[in-house]
From TrEMBL:
<protein>
    <submittedName>
        <fullName>Dihydroxy-acid dehydratase</fullName>
    </submittedName>
</protein>
<feature type="domain" description="Dihydroxy-acid/6-phosphogluconate dehydratase N-terminal">
    <location>
        <begin position="50"/>
        <end position="363"/>
    </location>
</feature>
<dbReference type="InterPro" id="IPR052352">
    <property type="entry name" value="Sugar_Degrad_Dehydratases"/>
</dbReference>
<dbReference type="InterPro" id="IPR042096">
    <property type="entry name" value="Dihydro-acid_dehy_C"/>
</dbReference>
<feature type="domain" description="Dihydroxy-acid/6-phosphogluconate dehydratase C-terminal">
    <location>
        <begin position="374"/>
        <end position="576"/>
    </location>
</feature>
<dbReference type="InterPro" id="IPR056740">
    <property type="entry name" value="ILV_EDD_C"/>
</dbReference>
<comment type="similarity">
    <text>Belongs to the IlvD/Edd family.</text>
</comment>
<dbReference type="InterPro" id="IPR037237">
    <property type="entry name" value="IlvD/EDD_N"/>
</dbReference>
<dbReference type="GO" id="GO:0051536">
    <property type="term" value="F:iron-sulfur cluster binding"/>
</dbReference>
<keyword id="KW-0408">Iron</keyword>
<dbReference type="GO" id="GO:0016836">
    <property type="term" value="F:hydro-lyase activity"/>
</dbReference>
<dbReference type="InterPro" id="IPR020558">
    <property type="entry name" value="DiOHA_6PGluconate_deHydtase_CS"/>
</dbReference>
<dbReference type="GO" id="GO:0046872">
    <property type="term" value="F:metal ion binding"/>
</dbReference>
<keyword id="KW-0456">Lyase</keyword>
<dbReference type="Pfam" id="PF24877">
    <property type="entry name" value="ILV_EDD_C"/>
</dbReference>
<dbReference type="InterPro" id="IPR000581">
    <property type="entry name" value="ILV_EDD_N"/>
</dbReference>
<dbReference type="Pfam" id="PF00920">
    <property type="entry name" value="ILVD_EDD_N"/>
</dbReference>
């Protein structure tokens, strides 16, 4: 049997050797070896100095978006073996965006905790993170960041493009469109379901530039995947090849001791922010990226999204900000092509190190868009200044607005009335959570008209719990039938990354902890000023103070023990919605856990 010690001992003892080859505690070593034999590994193999590589398996029938990883695992293992490593596959807590109630966002931190405990407590020297559905990517990058063990992300890839009656049908985006058509009476319930099913034609995650495609693209933009990984559609043969190469590469990363903290630097995060704008990426990206940054120990704040991302142009013509879906994005060159276009315009720091072992600049050499209908150049973009605006005022310290989805019609209808195309004054309609919204929206007594802004509160991390994707509220049916398909909406929750609604969301602090939205009342006047980046309730200061003094915090009803624990520990969306106490644990691979017997 080949002895790999010389090769992998360049950086000292492998972590796994503490388990499999520890003469100071022979009973313990024997207990590990005798039982890992039942995986088919021989004691000689486990003591040959090969790195043990975990495969963090996110696919299951509870997370169908990632089910492809159950098949890709064979190719990952082949790559790990061919490079001299020993693969060990293990499951992570399921995180399915559509299936988990009350929201998969509640479980992101639970999967993170589970992964940290696995990486820290088991004999692993490196890990392949199998990413895909929305929260699977941030949960795993957060866990790898806390541990700081060599790690590489492998996206499962998006589904094939969906089609309905000769037109592209994109994940999620078709739901929001169909919801309006149903309210207008244009389609019935059965057609609604058929349209949705048509948008999901194969294995893979959402085929729009929703949260899943955004977060996989940003994992690659951060340098945590091999170049070109994010965009390959799940069923394509290239996806299997990428799984194999990723497996091979992680073994060398262990040899090089190339850890997440060496890749995910502040410069890498600023690159990711710029890429997020160029993609027209999801409004969920800021909290997830904030969370990853905090766990890896990089200073990043919500204002950085506006300071570094706002004036970047939208380059990618993909739903919901544009027309196309994942297959065309892949053929146009995917993330390397987007980054290649940004780098040519000097919008990226190309010195940063990546999982390939090369700098970003080396990875991108000579790479440009292969189809300018899908990935445009910085000189000829889809639109200028397409990043997130960070708003503030007496209703919140910060909230986000995705400017790439503000349509001309929306601008004309709501923002131009007073001759100032960036401001509006309106009457507030306030809902306490999504159930209240659904129950009340069509009540004629609410008197919702086109001079209203819809607010929803109680939907943040603590309030919901987990923060709900509900801020993209649609207007009452009667208004939709008059052709008013959107009203401005504001909330302390999130919205789907596949939504084309220019909502003001992720308001922090949330109402449940006493944020300003808690004091807003139905009928209050509010003023939005996009030039000043403010949204304020126009309520007299003494009246506002009186409401604050009279406020009592809502009684939170926990349905599970995790909800209670989560609410106790979680922070606000502006800070990534992390378990705040967890962010002090960094580079914990340097602390070896005690022997179990
Ligand atoms: Fe899983 Fe969109 S619901 S990727
Ligand atoms: Mg969603």
């Amino acid at each position: 049997m080949t002895d790999y010690r010389d090769k992998f001992r360049a950086n000292g003892k492998l972590r796994s050797e503490e388990w499999f080859n520890n003469p100071n505690n022979p009973a313990m070593t024997a207990l590990y070896l005798e039982r890992y034999q039942n995986n088919g590994f021989t004691p000689q193999e486990l003591q040959s100095g090969r790195p043990v590589i975990g495969i963090a398996q996110s696919g299951s029938e509870l997370t169908p978006c990632n089910k492809i990883h159950l098949f890709l695992a064979d190719r990952i293992k082949a790559g790990i073996r061919d490079a001299g490593g020993i693969p060990i596959e293990f499951p992570i807590h399921p995180l399915h965006e559509n299936g988990k109630r009350p929201t998969a966002a509640l479980d992101r931190n639970l999967a993170y905790l589970g992964l940290v405990e696995i990486l820290h407590g088991y004999p692993l020297d490196g890990v392949v993170l199998t990413t895909g559905c929305d929260k699977t990517t941030p949960a795993m990058l957060m866990g790898a960041a806390t541990m700081d063990l060599p790690a590489i992300a492998l996206s499962g890839g998006p589904m094939l493009d969906g089609w309905w009656k000769g037109e592209l049908a994109g994940s999620g985006t078709i739901i929001w469109e169909s919801r309006r058509l149903l309210a207008e009476g244009v389609i019935d319930y059965d057609e609604f379901i058929s349209r949705a099913c048509a948008s999901a034609p194969s294995l893979g995650h959402c085929n729009t530039m929703g949260t899943a495609s955004t977060m996989n693209a940003l994992a690659e933009a951060l340098g945590m995947s091999l170049p070109g990984c994010a965009a390959i559609p799940a069923p394509f043969r290239e996806r299997m090849g990428m799984a194999y190469e990723t497996g091979k590469r992680i073994v060398d990363m262990v040899h090089e001791d190339l850890t997440p903290s060496k890749i995910m630097t502040r410069d890498a995060f600023l690159n990711a922010i710029r890429v997020a704008t160029a993609l027209g990426g999801s409004t969920n990206a800021p909290p997830h990226i904030q969370a990853i940054a905090r766990h890896v120990g990089v200073e990043l704040n919500i204002q950085d999204w506006q300071d570094f991302g706002f004036d970047v142009p939208l380059l990618v013509n993909m739903q919901p900000a544009g027309e196309f879906l994942g297959e065309r994005f892949f053929r146009a060159g995917g993330v390397p092509a987007v980054m290649g276009e940004l780098a040519r315009a000097d919008l990226l720091n190309t010195d940063v190190m990546t999982a390939s072992g090369k700098s970003l600049g080396e990875n991108l050499e000579g790479i440009r868009s292969a189809d300018t209908a899908v990935i445009r150049s910085v000189a000829d973009p889809m639109r200028e200044n397409a990043g997130f605006l960070v708003l503030s005022g007496n209703l919140f310290d910060s909230a986000l607005m995705k400017s790439s989805v503000i349509s001309k019609d929306f601008r004309k209808r709501f923002l131009s009335r007073k001759g100032d195309e960036n401001a509006l004054e309106a009457r507030a309609i306030v809902f306490d959570g999504p159930e209240h919204y659904h129950a009340m929206l069509n009540d004629p007594d609410l008197n919702v008209d086109e001079n209203c802004v819809l607010f929803i509160r109680g939907t943040g991390c603590v309030g919901f719990p987990g923060s709900a994707e509900v801020v993209n509220m649609q207007p009452p049916d009667a208004l939709i039938k008059q052709g008013i398909t959107h009203l401005p909406t504001v909330g302390d929750g999130r919205q789907s990354g596949t939504s084309e609604s220019p909502s003001i969301l992720n308001a922090s602090p949330e109402s449940a902890v006493g944020g300003g939205l808690a004091y807003l009342q139905n009928g209050d006047r509010v003023r939005l000023d996009l030039n000043a980046r403010t949204l304020n309730a126009m309520v007299a200061p003494d009246e506002w103070q009186r409401r604050i003094a009279d406020w009592t915090a809502p009684v939170l009803e926990h349905q599970t023990p995790w909800e209670e624990l989560y609410r106790e520990k979680v922070g606000q969306l502006a800070d990534g919605g992390c378990l705040d106490h967890a962010t002090k644990y960094q580079k914990i691979r340097n602390t070896l856990p005690r022997d179990s017997h």
